[in-house]
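step: validate -> pass
step: tokenize input -> pass
step: predict -> running
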Amino acid sequence: MEEIAIRTEYIKLDRFLKFANLVHTGGDAKGFIQEGSVKVNGEVCTMRGKKLRDGDIVTFNGEDFKVVRE
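step: predict -> pass
step: emit ->
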């Protein structure tokens, strides 16, 4: 599981996908989220504005990414 460090209290899901270099554009992020291709803490999440905080786990393309606060 790869850890992705953030400096803020939270990061929104669509921004996280871009920040972690998992997608190229915000439009790509929106599409993957809306089609149900992203899980947060084991559950499909279709809310692109979902706030991710320290300890949350995002699953995308079969890989897990843990949000950690710097």
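step: describe -> The chain has a mean pLDDT of 97.
step: cleanup -> pass
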